[in-house]
Amino acid sequence: MPPAVAPGTTIERYRVEAAIGAGSMGDVYRGVDIDLKRKVAIKILSERHRDNREIRARFVREARAVAAISHPNVVQVFTTGSYDNRPYIAMELLDGVDLGSSVSEHGPWRSRAAARAIRDAARGLDAAARAGLIHRDVKPSNLVQLRDGVVKVTDFGLAKPQDPGDEPALTALGVVVGTPDYIAPEQARGEKIDHRVDIYALGGTLFFLIAGIPPFRTGKPGEDKYLKVVARHLRQPAPDARTRNPDIDPELAQLARTMMAKSPDQRPSYADLIAQLSAIIQRLEAQGPGPTLPPTRAPSGGGRTSPTPPVGLRAASAEPSQPERPVTAPSSQRPGTDARAPSSRPARPVGRAVALPAWAVAITVIAALVFVTGLALTALGPRGLGILPATPEAAAPASASPRTSARADEATSTEAAPTPPPGMLLVTKPDGSPWFFVTAAPVTPADYAAIFPQHEPAHQTPSDGPVTGVSFEYAQAFARSHGKRLLTAKEWRAAQRTPGFVVADTLWEWIADSSGRDDRHTAIHPREGLATRAGSNAADVTFRLAKNP
């Protein structure tokens, strides 16, 4: 069936490129912002809900609520509007893989990587809770890890305001709330809920990441039917992930169980959860630079299969070694034969010459002559052997031949340098070849506000000066929204030597080099060099963008 909105359709400032999915309320398309030239995801209310006033109002209310959450760990909503008398949302198009597909494809994650992912998700859900939203459908497939390792919370299709007001009951709308593998007991019973149902589901997601299977599944189809799984959520204590993966950090496994406490009062708050995860990460990092990425072994069960490996992850374990090719023994040594048994073929006397017939000798001599003649023709040519008369062209030196001259011209010519985009400079390598593009000056407050209008930097600066007070995470998010990135320290130093590169002598600049610490990130200063700076409220730090040619 063709998509409801055909590719090429223009919806206000967005051009639809292709359909990429459908949810309970809306259809999702990949598109491009015509003005800003950036990829977006466009979610439009489904045609079947066009006349449903309640779902229509809910779609709009959720779009506005999520748009109010400006956080690097929540998918960013850019615009809401109407198309074909149906509401739509234009949001960030995430280039990454959801955690469910990652586990299904590569197996359970290692402790440090899992702790980082869940901490990112907790930060995003905390921002949603502070904005008055309960997600209600937290699960691995709704958490997406981007190329740079950052995890974002997505799909707020079942989100609910903590103060719903006159919102209609979900049962009246016929919407299934929650996923049985991660549903909190109070949510399954239909009781009044708050943000702590998301903490429970996040604990189940942590269990899945480190164990490779949802917490209350057995792996037996007959025992894992819907009602049986929900019943275990209601009655059984949370399992210990170490029973399935003994290599998991004990404190992290216990934290997953605490998050899945039956009573909401016994679950940690977001602040406590983030603090505990940060402490676990710091402790694991102090133990050494061991692998932190998910392994590449086959999954132990559960999850959703992805046709491609996770974007941004690399295999932490080596490729399986190739099996050794069997060596075939000589026939006299093969099983079933006796090496001492005499051969039935008469043995040739050692050291005796064998006479050849006269005709064989003649054929051998003729073949040798033909071979020698052909070799001479190849090396010297017909004129070299006197078969053809010499010509001026043949007497000319080899360096003067057209073919050789063309090769020389090609070797001395250089390719035209790529043209930098407006406002950017081309930085070249020491040999003069193109390296990358960089913005001539740091990002301005006006440029920043065009992408994050709801988020004001902690420190205001003149509109024509560098923006400051932007956290490292928001700087990365701003760069990604433009299809660009932050510079590395090596790139920044090379760019500094490029004519036209504007440096603010009193400011640091965020760079992409990771400091390895939870609350501090690396910045560079034109005089002081590299140092780590606080990741937020950075009054003396700005940033600029880079892009590959």
What does this molecule look like?
By secondary structure, the chain is of the alpha+beta class. It folds into three domains: 1-93, Phosphorylase Kinase, domain 1, CATH 3.30.200.20; 96-315, Orthogonal Bundle (Transferase(Phosphotransferase), domain 1), CATH 1.10.510; 424-547, Alpha-Beta Complex (paralog of FGE (formylglycine-generating enzyme)), CATH 3.90.1580.10. It is built from 15 helices and 18 strands. It has helices at 53-67, 99-106, 111-130, 170-173, 185-188, 196-211, 226-235, 250-259, 270-286, 358-384, 392-395, 402-412, 445-451, 472-481, 489-496, and strands spanning 10-11, 14-22, 26-33, 38-45, 77-83, 86-92, 96-98, 133-134, 143-146, 151-153, 160-161, 424-428, 434-439, 508-510, 520-525, 529-534, 541-542, 546-547. The strands form five sheets. The protein has a six-stranded antiparallel sheet, with helices on one face. Helix 3 (111-130) runs antiparallel to helix 6 (196-211) and helix 3 (111-130) packs antiparallel against helix 9. The longest helix is centred in the C-terminal third of the chain and has 27 residues, at 358-384. Mean pLDDT is 76; it is low at 166-177, 295-355 and 382-414.
